[in-house]
Amino acid sequence: MIAEFGLAALWLAAALAGLQLLAGAMGLRADANQGGAEIAALVRPAAVVQALLCALAFGALLLLFVRTDLSVALVARNSHSAKPLIFKLAGAWGNHEGSMLLWVSVMALAGGLIALLERRLPERTMLATLAAQAFVGLGFYAFLLISSNPFERLNPAPPEGAGLNPLLQDLGLAFHPPTLYMGYVGLSVAFSFAVGALLTRQVTPEFAKVMRPWILGAWIFLTLGITAGSYWAYYELGWGGWWFWDPVENASLMPWLAATALLHSASVLASRDALRAWTIMLGVVAFSMSMIGTFLVRSGILTSVHAFAVDPERGTFILALLTLYIGGALLLFAVRANTIAEGERFSVLSREGALVVNNVALSAILGIVLLGTLYPLLTEAFGVRVSVGPPYFNPVGAIFFLPMLLVLAVGPMLRWRRDSFERIQAPVVAIAVVALAVLAGVYFLAGIKLLPLLGMTLAAAVAVAAFMPLRGRSLLRLPLPVWGMVVAHFGVAVALFGMAADSAFQQERLVAAQVGETVEDGPWRITLIAVEPVAGPNWTALEATLQASYKGGEPTVLHPQARSFWTPPQETSESALLTRWNGQLYSVIGGEAEGDRWQLRLWWKPFVTWIWYGGVLIALGGLLALVGRLSGDLRRRSAQAQIALRRGGTAA
Amino acid sequence: MTSFRWILLALVAGLFGLFAYMLTQRKDEFVHSAMVGQPIPAFALPPAVEDRPGLSSHDLADGQPKLLNIFASWCVPCAAEAPNLAKLEASGATIVGVAIRDRSEDVGAFLAAYGNPFSRIGKDDISAVQLSLGSSGVPETFVIDGRGVIRYQHIGDIRDSDVSVLLAELREAGA
Hints:
The structure holds 2 protein chains of 2 kinds. In chain A, helix 3 (43-67) packs antiparallel against helix 6 (96-117) and helix 15 runs antiparallel to helix 16 (450-466). Chain A folds into 4 domains: 1-167, no CATH class; 170-346, Four Helix Bundle (Hemerythrin (Met), subunit A); 447-505 and 610-643; 508-606, no CATH class. Chain A has helices at 2-29, 34-40, 43-67, 73-78, 85-93, 96-117, 123-147, 171-200, 205-237, 247-272, 276-299, 312-336, 351-381, 390-410, 425-445, 450-466, 480-505, 610-651, and strands spanning 507-513, 518-521, 524-535, 539-550, 556-558, 561-565, 570-574, 576-580, 583-593, 597-606. Chain A is globular. Chain A is of the alpha+beta class. Chain B is of the alpha/beta class. Chain B has one domain (34-174): Glutaredoxin (3-Layer(aba) Sandwich), CATH 3.40.30. Chain B has helices at residues 2-24, 76-90, 104-114, 128-132, 160-174; strands spanning 44-45, 55-56, 66-71, 95-100, 118-124, 140-144, 150-155. In chain B, the strands form 2 sheets. Chain B has a 5-stranded mixed beta sheet with strand order 5-4-3-6-7. A two-stranded antiparallel sheet of chain B has the order 1-2. In chain B, strand 6 (140-144) and strand 7 form a beta hairpin. Chain B is elongated and about 75 Å long. Classes of the chains: A alpha+beta, B alpha/beta. The interface between A and B is medium-sized, with 27 and 20 residues.
């Protein structure tokens, strides 16, 4: 019954999305007459009820997984009665159908929230936005109900479920995909707002303020998702790298780049009423990148280390949705953008000017990543196989990344509209001095390669510059969004320093060591104590016992493993990490070498953890800004309510 | 700015066209050798087992077309294709082998268990010859004509249906 109930709730929600779209469209057309207003009054309630129905459907799926109802095909394929509860729950969204239901549910919840709370925009723009949201939602409902029904029954029910693979029982794996999905779906709200504004030609600072918390929320989730994904690849794959320019990684990076640009251009629109058409286009592009990413990952047309089940029917379906939404929105943009009045003017040397440079650089990097990701696909269509990797992405991306960081250092100090160089001369000189000192110091002391050298220099410059906006301001009175900007920009410096230090100073040793032998790697002395076989529930492994001591200090024990799984047969390296504040020792054991020796791979990676600390700081900055914006909105709202109350009181 | 918008739209349309086209294409996961049609590079491998001689590029240009099978004792599909290699040998094919990253005693045990269809077996400890042939995995089987030119590459284990294909390719290489 639960499954049928969930399916019915889903169909009803889809029907309500249809109603929301129709009523919204009719309300928009029949503006003036009374009938239009009556029909339009249906839109908000439809969105709210749709959200409730989706929440019910998702709740039903969770309940099915908690009960391990094996008569439901999805549960039988992905769960097992002996699984711990947390992984039973995670199993609900850890597969194609469940994750699409999660996607649709979060989207409906977002739509419901907007319908319930948002009163700042003109009602016509809200109608258009909610209609657009319903239009996008309908496509995903169709996808879910026609080709990916999560509530499908299985008759007869199997005696036990097939999903007890311990490899997949990993907390990181359970929460990484939904985190990214939250980001993608948040961008769908920005997309709907952009389409709504285009349809009604209402691109105002208010519009940017309404859209901004959604972009911020999505951006925080994307930042965390990418950071966590990068760390997961780092410790799980056993290759010592933290970013591989894999198509799936790029699929999450591209929406992030677009969202970062959008975040900054929306703040220009909100504060200064400039960059109207550009902000709208980024709103469309950001969600388009999410959908293209999902398509690339799910259709299997690109080869990647992330092997998903490939299904041409689903690929075709998503492609049809892509064409409809992205093509439609861009067409609308191309037709309408001329009619959006040009915003306020500003001089080149101004906060807006700096943010334009930031936007252009981010868009250029986005274009570079997109081209690198799709190029193999393009040549394959002509029968040529190529792969595009770090030799392309790193230097070509750096061309735009470096000027962006320079602007990041200086931009926040500039005033809106027009500024003079004399006013900011002193801090700029101070930052330049710090940068040059670091450049010279690192160059003469360490003599490292160009890109890491530039990375370290800019990291120092950005770190100092990040705190410059605090100059001469009362720290207690400083608005939270400014704190958010400071923390996020400092996070960029921290992450950049980690990347540069890791690539410049990492020390790798590949040795064939006998038991008892001691190996040096940078400041570490590592002794191979023993190699022993160990067994897990569905694997056997060779486990090494290593004793590592940093600069002659107390030794610590590490246990890297070379695991062999039986079903499916697969060899994995379980790396063992030793974390200090200033870096990580990364150890991997390979196979047996000749003469009772064991292949050991050791890396000393100075400051590598700072990459992820930086990512977390960036997300934290976003969170501070979000809390600041939301609490500001709440205060304004309650103040307005009080004013209205007082007015009502005097009138009566 | 206006023309830029339409260019963007055209680019996106082109991109979706590419996506649609690639969706209709069957995914080919094999890495085909660029060496097909080329003479094999010069090499000389020591014997992998005591009772068979090693393998050099000269042995492959002695006027007689051959099958060159890349295998390893640690490779499960190699054991699976052993009966079909035996069938090919029984049909008159000359088969030479290259053992990849293997130990002599393991190769010996493997051949004792699954049969030995090879007239020569070279021991390729660092995959040097494998890579120079343009092979990316085990097992793979190449058809080499009498002048030492690679004529055909078969990727993966030899299934029942592949036997006749390989025999036909071998006949054509000899013609």
